[in-house]
Amino acid sequence: MGSGHGTLGPPKVVNIEDLRRLAHRRLPRPVFDYLDGGAEDELTLRENTRAFQDIHFRPRGAVVIKEKCDLAVRVLGQELLSPAVLAPVGYSRLMHPGGEVAAAQAAGEAGTAYILSTISGHKLEAVKAATTGPAWYQLYLLGGQGAAEAGIERAQRAGYSALVITVDTPVAGMRERDPRNGMKELLGKSFLAKLPYLLEIMAHPRWLAAFLVDGGMPRLENIVVPGQEPMKLVDVAAALVDAAVTWADLRWIRKVWTGPIVVKGILTAGDARRAVDEGAAAVVVSNHGGRQLDSVSATIRALPEVVSAVHGRTEVLMDGGVRRGSDIVKAICLGARAVLVGRAYAYGLGAAGKAGVTRALEILRADIERTLRLLGCPSVATLDRSYVEVPHAWECQRETN
Known about the structure:
Blueprint: H1 16-26, H2 29-36, H3 43-50, E1 56-57, E2 73-75, E3 78-80, E4 84-86, H4 92-95, H5 99-109, E5 114-116, H6 124-130, E6 135-139, H7 144-158, E7 162-166, H8 177-181, H9 183-187, H10 191-194, H11 198-202, H12 205-213, E8 219-224, E9 230-232, H13 236-240, H14 249-256, E10 261-266, H15 269-277, E11 282-285, H16 299-310, E12 315-319, H17 325-333, E13 338-341, H18 343-352, H19 354-375, E14 388-389, H20 392-399
Parallel strand pairs: 4-13, 5-6, 6-7, 7-10, 10-11, 11-12, 12-13
Antiparallel strand pairs: 1-14, 2-3, 8-9
């Protein structure tokens, strides 16, 4: 892989927002805004983060924890050293040549799981080989059932331990930053169409050099229609229209995939119960990071409803808006088994490749341990609702669903 921007450098990176600012400087605007932006007015994007502020901690006083806090969690039968799981992030190879391989390697070194997006510039076999930790494969039905089955079979042979089905993308959300920045034109073949947007790309010579050394626009190596070449990046948005997942699809998927299935994109009690009925080993409370339907609930607010609905019949994970380890602690107090982080590590990837992902995970781990100590709680496993206070409206919502 090209080294690109492979070091953090000054100023000192102490939180995820520092990584975001560094990625903003080092990435061309179209790439950064693809990572950073959300759908339409970005109301849900902002609310995902803001809603954590409505949850207040209830610490135990006069408690001193002399040993290291235990951050381990057990998810889908696998022991993880941290409750922060790396969420699937598409187009990662545009952020840094190391892309998914670098992120998976950092996850393994941190003792946590990595989820590979179907929309990956690296072959799924190479990504799995890069990590010493668990790897899950996130599936879109891009290219039709034949391409999906081929991808599932490859993932199973490579040793992926869970399949993640995303159910909130019947079409791509309207992410208005992308057309303003000419993302489609930059991904396409026409040089003339690219011209209005090239100045911004040329203003980031380190990124551009690494991108060109890496071979330019990556193909989607894990979306291969039988008898055809891998899908091109520019074709994804159009292909999503014919790739919507239905509940009926889970039935044929279960016949191809023999391991646990995780359903991602759940926001309501009804969908949570349906996922359990369809055999989901876990559900992910997720609104796609505010990138699909704008004005839906923040995921941390939807979490208690889903936890109550499944009533312990399946594991509940969540993602969305996580920028600090204390956010992860709040989610676990409200019933999440573990928390998926996406932008938090992707900012690190864009800022400094694998070193940036490693730093993001270090920051979150230190945050979680410090928060546990300040709460007077010795381990993630002993967190519960008694450590937090939530708005009364959230409690009413949970009780009526």
